[in-house]
Design goal:
alpha+beta, 10-stranded mixed beta sheet, 24 strands
């Protein structure tokens, strides 16, 4: 069968032959129908059809070969390179796609017969080196939710391979209710606070798994100490024996750990949701979170605290998600807004 023919017009390709339109749009679902029996193809669609030898593109009377079409398209569309690679990969996987805008794809139909009822997805494309903010990811979730779509991220690496993630907001609920504790005193060292009151130490550890045993006492992290100080359970002393105020304690730990206030907001929110919270250092994250007692189950979540304006590096995200999946945990970014509200973004690696 002879290839269809189209004319390059600025940053799109126009088809006018009825039979070509029937094959390209009616059968294969490429392009957008226009009035007067015309079909508009995005340059990404045109390049794919040209590579598949199903389309010949002309610029005026000059036939463009595939190499020239790619070069022309890349000069006209800043995100052409990345989006084309991902579009190409998804079409080869059997997906039919509609381009919403230059950096996004929308799956409106898939040939996967095993999941005929699976709802379509909003797919946003990134290159491996392209930065992205938490705020932008939240906007994608909002857009997808409003349109009743799944939200996918597609990241193309330097070799043209694509990794896909499903992104969603995660509601967290744990079984642990807040316990009551007697007031006590702790001694501030450099990176931790030591509680020597054996009874209180045992109560803190047994009821809500604070800290780790230290002789007959308990060593707790600075973020745990801040939580207990703010809840009027713990008073801080310096090694000299001097008792210090809550504000002085915060001033000290803010200097020692610049991100502690951000981590505290998330720690406090996780505790409010009924989760047990422990350090996530061994997994490269701020926290690991349990929905029930740690001696009865493994942590369900790995949580990393971020601000709305924080910029993500996809290599770091990839490492975090792969590690979480390898230990059967869900990786979450805990996003903190200006009002100190927290939303949890769950990443799941998928195979389209």
């Amino acid at each position: 069968m002879n290839p269809a023919t189209g004319i390059l017009q600025q940053d799109e390709v126009i088809l006018t032959n009825s039979k070509d339109i029937g094959r390209i749009f009616g059968k294969s679902k490429f392009g957008t129908p226009l009035s007067k029996n015309k079909l508009r193809l995005d340059l990404i669609e045109a390049a794919f059809l040209c590579e598949e030898k199903k389309l010949i593109v002309y610029d005026l009377d000059e036939r463009l070969d595939f190499e020239t079409l790619i070069a022309t398209s890349a000069s006209l569309q800043e995100t052409f390179e990345t989006t084309y690679l991902i579009f190409r990969d998804l079409r080869h996987r059997g997906h039919q796609l509609k381009l919403l805008k230059k950096e996004s794809l929308f799956t409106f139909y898939t040939k996967n017969q095993q999941e005929p009822d699976k709802r379509p997805s909003l797919i946003t494309t990134f290159s491996e080196r392209e930065p992205c903010t938490i705020q932008f990811l939240l906007s994608l979730i909002k857009q997808a939710t409003q349109q009743e779509l799944d939200c996918w991220l597609a990241i193309a690496d330097e070799e043209g391979d694509t990794t896909y993630y499903e992104l969603d907001s995660q509601l967290l609920t744990g079984e642990k209710k807040s316990s009551s504790f007697k007031k006590t005193t702790g001694i501030l060292l450099k990176d931790r606070v030591i509680i020597f009151d054996e009874k209180v130490a045992n109560s803190l550890h047994e009821k809500e798994f604070f800290g780790k045993n230290f002789g007959k006492g308990l060593q707790i992290s600075l973020v745990e100490a801040l939580y207990l100080v703010k809840n009027k359970i713990l008073q801080i002393q310096l090694p000299s024996g001097e008792t210090i105020t809550k504000q002085y304690f915060e001033n000290i730990i803010n200097q020692r750990q610049e991100d502690i206030q951000k981590r505290y907001i998330v720690f406090n929110d996780l505790k409010k949701q009924g989760l047990i919270v422990k350090t996530g250092f061994k997994f490269g994250n701020h926290f690991r979170a349990y929905t029930t007692q740690p001696d009865k189950t493994h942590a369900q979540y790995l949580v990393h605290a971020v601000s709305l304006t924080d910029t993500l590096e996809w290599a770091e995200v990839s490492r975090a998600i792969r590690l979480a999946h390898s230990v059967n945990k869900i990786f979450l970014f805990a996003s903190i807004d200006a009002e100190k509200n927290v939303r949890y973004l769950a990443f799941k690696r998928i195979r389209p």
